[in-house]
Amino acid sequence: MTPDEPNVPAVALSIVHARLIALGLAALYAVALPVHLTQLTGVARTVMASLAAASIAGMLAWAAVASRWPQRVTPPRSDALAVVPLVNSLAHLALTADIRQTTTLMLVFLAVGAAAASCRFAVAICVTATIAWAIICASFAGPARKGLLHYAVQLGMALTLAALLFAMRRRRENHLLAVQTQLIEHVGRVEAGQQELALSEHRFRSLFRDSPVGIGLSDEHGLFVAANRALCRLLGRDEAEILGHSGNEFTHPEDVPSQDLTRAWLANPDPGIVRTEKRYVRPSGEVRWVWLTVNKVDGPTGQRWSIGHMLDVSERKATEQALTDSEGNLAAVSAVVRRIRTGEDARHAITTAALEMSGANSCCILEPRTPDGLIVTGSAGVDLIGTTIAFDSVSVSLAVYRSGKPLFLSDAAGDPRVSQVLLQAIEGTALLLQPVIADGVVTGVLSVSWPYRVESVSDRAVRAIELLADEAAIALQHDQLLTRLAALASTDTLTGLDNRRGWDDRLGQLLAQSRRTGAPVTVAILDLDHFKKFNDQHGHLRGDAMLSTTARKFQAQLREVDLLARWGGEEFAVALPGCDSAAARPLLERLRPAVTHGQTCSVGYATWDGVETPEQLLARADEALYDAKAAGRNRSVAALTPAPRRPPVEETAVADGPR
Q1: Enclosing H/E stretch for 306
Q2: In whole angstroms, what is the distance from residue 527 CA to residue 256 CA?
Q3: What Å distances lie between residue 77 and 2, 70, 81, 218, 484, CA to CA?
Q4: 584-595 pLDDT tens trace
Q5: How far apart are CA 148 and CA 140, in angstroms?
Q6: 445 pairs with which residues across the strands?
Q7: CB of 549 within 8 A of CB of 599?
Q8: Which pLDDT value is given to residue 655?
Q9: Phi and psi for 412 in degrees, rounded to 5?
Q10: Mind listing the pLDDT tens digit for each residue in 100-131?
Q11: What are phi and psi of 374, to 5 degrees?
Q12: Which of 168, 367, 445, 579 could connect to 584 by a Cys-Cys bridge, CB 3.0–4.6 Å?
C-alpha cells in the first residue's frame, strides 16, 4: 500500500462518517456566525460572516450528497472538507491582523493529520496553508508582528505533530488490515478442512448407500437406525418399514434363536465379529438366505452399536466373490470411521485395514516429515515407525512420491531401486506402492508388501489400496489441521509462549511427573511493575513490544526443562521442575533484570507440597506476589509453606496403585 492509497478502514470511515463530519462543521460555523457578527467590525465582520454562512451552506450540501449518493463520497473527496476550516482560519488572520489566530490554524493541521486519508493531499493543503500564513504575516507591520517568531515555531510543531498523528494512524490501520487478512486466511483454511471432512463423510455415506450388499446399522437395543438400498431390496421393504424395527421381525421363525445369540454377543464387552448364515422373510412370503456379518461399533455417545453386512447367498456361487470383497471394504470403512469419530491414530487403522484387505504381511505409510527425506509414520505387520529414506538416495518409495504414480513389483529381490536390507527386515518379496494425494499434491506413500512372489495384484486389492490411500490423504490432512488448531488454542499470539490453557495442561503433566519421581517443583508468577502507567505514557504498541521482548529474554535465562507461559496481561508464569525454593530463587533472580525498557517486575513463588492442587499452588504463589508488591515491588518473595495435610483417599490410591 502506497501512502496515497487509502486503506480499507479509511475508506469505510469516509463513507460512513462523511455526513456526520459535514454536519459537525456546519454546526461549528453556525456558532461562529453570530460570534463574527458581534465581535468583529467593518470589512472583517462582513467577510467572516459571509464565509461562515457559505461554509454552513456548503457543509449542508455535502451532507445531503453523502446521504443520497454515498458511493460518491470517496476518501479524496472527504479530505476536501479540510479546505473549509483552513480558508476560514487564514481569512480571519488576514482580516484581523491578529497573530493569535494562528492557534486556530494549528488545530486545523492536527485535525488534518488525524483524519486525512491521502498523504499527498494532507501534505499539499498543509504546505499551501503554511505558505499562505507566511505571506499574510509578512504583510503585518508594527505591533502586529509581535510574537511572530513564537507562533512560527508553534506552527512548525503543529505540522510535526500532524505528521506523527498521520503516520501513527496509518500504521495502526495497516496493522488492523494485516490482522484482518490473517483472520480471513485462517478461516479459509478451517473451511477447507471442514470441506475435506464433509467430502470424506460423503464418500462413506455413498459407499454405505450404494453398496451392492445389504448394510444395516443398529442401536444398543437392536433397532435399525440406518439401512442402505441393497438391504431394502433384500428385505423387500421400504426404508421407513425397516428403521426403528428389530431384525427379529424380518427373520425366519426357525432362525430367531440365532438372532438372540447375536444380541447376547453384542452385550459382551469383548471385541469381535459374528458371522452366521440365516434366512429373512419378505412380505410376499419369499425366503432369502443371507450371509450375515455383524461388527461392533461405537454410537454417537459411546453406546454399543452394531453394523451388519447381509449378503444374499441364494445364488451363492454368483455372489461369493462379492461377499469377500464387501467384507474387506466394510472392515476398512469401520476402522476409518472409528478413527475419525474417536480421534485415534488413523495411520495404524489404514495400514491394518490394508493388510486385511490385501492378504499382505506388511504395510506402512511414509510422509515427508523432515526436510531430509520420507519417514515411516504408521505401520502394521512389521514395526517400521521412524525409518527414514533420505531424499538423496535411490528408492522406489521416492520415485512414487515424486512421480505421483503407483508402482507394483512382483519380485523386488535384487532390484537396485529397493533397499535389500529393508526388504529383508519386512520379509517382503512383492511390493505395491500407492501415492497418497490430497488436492493434487503428493503428501505420502502407502507401501504394501507380500512375503512371496506375486505375479499380479487383483483388481479388488488394487481398488482397496487406492481407496485407503484416498482416505489416508483426508485423514492426514485432518490430523494436521487439528494439530495446528490445538497449537493456536494453547499459544499466546503476542509472545509465542503457552497461554493459560497451554500452561494448565503442561503444569498438570509436571506435577504428575513430580508425584511419580518425588522431585520438587516450584512455580512463580512474575508481574511487570507499573505496566499500566508504561502503556499510558508510551502507548499500547510499545507496551506490546516490551511484553514480546521481555518474554524472549525470560526464555533465554531459563533452562530447557523449565516452563514459561503468559499468565495474562502483564503477568508471566514459570514452572521450575527439579527445584525447591532455595534452588529456584537464583533462577528467578536472573529473570528480574531481564525486563526491558527500564522496567522492573515483582516475583512470587511457591514450591509444591506434593498434595495441593495446581490451583492451590498458584494461589500461594499469587499471595507471595502480592507480598512482593506490598514490600515495594522489584523483588522476589517466597510463599509460606502450607500446613501439613493428609492426601485425599482417591489420590493416595492412585499414587500407590500400579503404574
Answers
A1: strand 304-312
A2: 72
A3: 18, 11, 7, 69, 45
A4: 999 999 999 999
A5: 10
A6: 366, 435
A7: no
A8: 33
A9: -85, -5
A10: 888 888 888 888 887 777 788 888 888 888 89
A11: -90, 145
A12: 579
